[in-house]
Specification:
The complex is a heterodimer of chains A (314) and B (372).
Chain A lengths: L8 E12 L2 E12 L3 E5 L6 H8 L7 E6 L2 E2 L4 H5 L2 E4 L11 H11 L4 H14 L15 H13 L5 E5 L7 H16 L3 E5 L3 H4 L4 E6 L2 E6 L1 H6 L4 E7 L2 H9 L4 E7 L2 E6 L2 H14 L4 E7 L3 H13 L1
Parallel strand pairs in A: 3-8, 3-9, 6-7, 7-8
Antiparallel strand pairs in A: 1-2, 1-4, 4-5, 9-10, 11-13, 11-14, 12-13
Chain B lengths: L3 H16 L2 H8 L1 H14 L5 E7 L4 H11 L4 E6 L4 H8 L5 E5 L3 H6 L4 E8 L3 H25 L8 E8 L6 H13 L1 H17 L1 H6 L5 H30 L8 H23 L5 H18 L12 H9 L1 H15 L7 H21 L6
Parallel strand pairs in B: 1-2, 1-3, 4-5
Antiparallel strand pairs in B: 3-4
Helix pairs in contact in B: 4-7, 8-15, 9-11, 9-12, 9-13, 11-12, 12-15, 12-16, 15-16
Chain lengths: 314, 372
């Protein structure tokens, strides 16, 4: 067993598996998360991100394998984990009919935050979440982004060492999303370990390391740079005069991994541009498509993600 | 224009909703039969046994034949033969007898002289339906006896037995007087229902998942919820009391403290049972339906509220024994109509406490801070 003797490892899973009836949601995940890092869980819907976080938060029992969080086993010593972990489920888990302040008070009571410290924490998390001026607002009257921030504030009330966030920014507008991540960065700088699942690739880029989940398996794990480096391909961007024809003729060419439309531009994701592109130009010429503004761009996380998933499917 | 295709699409979708949710499936397929059985049980049984005590002051051959004739088929089961009138009160308070038959001295003499003779039937008016049935049966049996058997004993036709019914505790045998206190048990299911819904709502909305990751303990969670609804439940007793007294004019012979104590015991048992049942559901809808099936309807029919509990069927005896309302019906009627000291009701109160303790212990044992 790989139980961590290494003090820098704060979360460790060994052959972690979870099935629902006969369907495996997670298969034999081995993962170590370092103290203080922001670890991103990415993967398509149904990949097992939520199950993973539930297992880490010890609100779900694994069917096989084990989870160690802050040195405690998630099954035998779940209660020892709870005080040191802040878990924010994907569904809004606050009480809409309670005010901002009342929600905080509730969680402070549950986590046993009392005494002079209590008021100070309220002020801290409220100002942190930019809600100092609306403590009496009912939670259900907050915007989606604000609700997420309040959720985060509530999970922070007991100063957890580990934050587990399940798609905290899904359904939130880009500005609020950025604000939320600024808060996470602040916590990261204060030394909090953060495990966050996200469907957004720009968010994945902001993590120290990411784990790519697909069909219940951890198919890749590393820094964003490492993940992108796994993908050999390149992206050729150009402006065709007949977008639909260009897309149709290129889609099934050998060496073409992906064709995507970006407004009037076409992104063609290829294995090796120097080899494939001249051939594609010929094909486009035969189809009487004129091309300009050609440039080579490096694959971003999104392309890397799609490519890695394609590789699995193929 | 109405589109049949859209209609069918909706219908197909609903079909999937039902078939893919075992609870709904159970509800639409099995529950009607379940209800039918339960209701059939209820309406098929008449009161077929009354416990009766006999005070025969006449002690003649005729009076003995009269008693034998009335009780011969076992419908009126003679619990004991008494020697004094005072004993009736003692046995009836203890609930050991529902009917007392009093044959005064001189009945036979009057009959032989061709005069009518009065016989007294004392019935326990607390349970008005049983009382009325007993009175009606005794009257009919006395008439038959007068017509058929008195001539055999060479008694002139003008001599007949006139049975006079006297209802204790509820002298007018007003069914409202016995119905209202009993119904309080049913209407007080509302706080229990609210508790069950609150429990299910937390799971349904997902806030339970967040809570599960906190250091909160099962005991705190369950009892925290119970406490609130206990408070509301007790407060709801105030308007109920006002309605019972001011509107229905039901006398409260016991004290308010008595009523508060028995109601607390009732909530304790009901909340425990509700917690145990609701532990296994995940939606408010399911909680609502289960509460209706497990609490509401049985509390109407299987608790002695409308019809006496058929104790001859062991299954029904168990069901009504487990249902908190059946004990509360006895207690509430007792406090309102009899006004006896609580010691007299130690039995049902103890049963409520046992039900509450057992169900809450079980609820805690099955309660999991996990989702599945």
């Amino acid at each position: 067993m790989r139980v961590s003797n290494n003090p820098s490892v704060i979360i460790c899973t060994t052959q972690l598996s979870r099935s629902f009836r006969k369907i495996a949601a997670l298969r034999a995940i081995d993962l170590s998360i370092q103290r203080g890092e922001i670890f991103g869980l990415v993967g398509p819907d149904g990949a097992g991100k939520t199950t993973m976080l539930r297992l880490l938060a010890a609100v779900m029992t694994p069917t096989a394998g084990q989870v160690t969080v802050v040195g405690h086993d998630s099954v035998k010593d779940a209660e020892k984990i709870r005080g040191q972990v802040g878990y924010m489920p994907q569904r809004f888990s606050l009480y809409g009919d309670l005010s901002v302040q009342e929600n905080l008070q509730f969680y402070a009571d549950i986590f046993g935050v009392h005494g002079p410290e209590r008021q100070r924490r309220f002020e801290q998390v409220l100002s942190f979440a930019h809600m100092s001026d609306i403590p009496d607002r009912r939670a259900k009257q907050l915007s989606g982004g604000m609700q997420k921030k309040l959720g985060l504030a509530c999970t922070l009330i007991h100063r957890p060492d580990v934050l587990l966030l399940d798609e905290p920014t899904t359904g939130v507008d880009p500005v609020s999303r950025r604000e939320f991540w600024d808060l996470l960065t602040e916590l990261h700088l204060q030394g909090t370990t953060i495990v966050v699942s996200t469907p957004y690739m720009d968010e994945a880029e902001r993590c120290n390391r990411i784990g790519l989940l697909f069909k219940g398996e951890l198919i890749e794990c590393g820094t964003p740079r490492e993940i992108k480096a796994l993908v050999q391909g390149q992206v050729v961007e150009f402006h065709p005069d007949r977008l639909e024809v260009a897309r149709a003729v290129l889609s099934h060419q050998p060496g073409v991994l992906e064709v995507q439309v970006y407004g009037t531009l076409l992104h063609v994701f290829v294995e090796d541009a120097t080899v494939v592109w001249p051939r594609l130009q010929t094909v486009l010429g035969e189809a009487e498509v004129k091309v300009d503004n050609v440039r080579l761009i490096h694959p971003r996380m999104e392309e890397a993600f799609i490519s890695l998933i394609r590789r699995q499917v193929g | 224009m109405m589109s049949l295709k859209r209609l069918v699409a909706i219908s197909r979708k609903e079909f999937h909703h039902v078939t893919r949710d075992p609870r709904t499936l159970l509800l639409v397929l099995v529950a009607p039969a379940f209800l039918l059985m339960m209701l059939a049980y209820v309406f098929a049984f008449d009161v077929d046994q009354f416990s009766v005590v006999v005070l025969d002051q006449d002690r003649t051959d005729v009076s003995r034949r009269y008693i034998a004739d009335l009780t011969g088929d076992g419908v009126f089961e003679v619990v004991s033969y008494l020697n004094s009138y005072d004993e009736i009160e003692r046995l009836m308070q203890a609930g050991r007898a529902k009917v007392a038959l009093v044959i005064p001295h001189g009945v036979t003499a009057n009959l032989l002289a061709g005069r009518s003779a009065e016989v007294q039937a004392v019935i326990d008016g607390v349970d008005s339906i049983t009382g009325q049935q007993a009175a009606a049966q005794l009257e009919a049996r006395s008439r038959t006896f007068s017509l058929k058997l008195l001539p055999v004993a060479r008694i002139p036709a003008s001599g007949f037995i006139d049975i006079r019914t006297l209802a204790w505790y509820n002298p007018s045998i007003k069914s409202l007087n016995s119905m209202v206190p009993g119904l309080i048990g049913v209407v007080l299911i509302m706080p229990t229902l609210a508790l069950a819904l609150a429990f299910a709502r937390e799971k349904e909305l997902g806030s339970f998942e967040g809570l599960a990751s906190t250091p909160i303990r099962g005991v705190e969670y369950l009892f925290g919820k119970i406490l609130t609804y206990l408070g509301f439940g007790m407060v709801s007793l105030i308007p109920i009391l006002i309605a019972a007294q001011a509107w229905f004019q039901v006398p409260l012979h016991g004290t308010l403290v008595d009523l508060a104590v028995v109601t607390l015991a009732y909530f304790f048992a009901s909340f425990g049972l509700a917690m145990l049942v609701v532990n296994f559901v995940k939606s408010q809808q399911a909680a609502m339906l289960i509460m209706i099936l497990v609490f509401f309807i049985p509390s109407f029919f299987l608790t002695g509220l409308i019809v006496p509990i058929d104790t001859s069927s062991p299954a029904m005896a168990v069901v009504s024994g487990v249902l908190p309302a059946s004990h509360y019906v006895v207690l509430a009627r007792g406090v309102f109509l009899k006004g006896l000291p609580l010691v007299e009701f130690a039995g049902p109160i103890a049963l409520l406490i046992i039900i509450g303790t057992a169900t809450l212990t079980l609820s805690l044992a099955v309660f999991k801070k996990r989702i599945s």
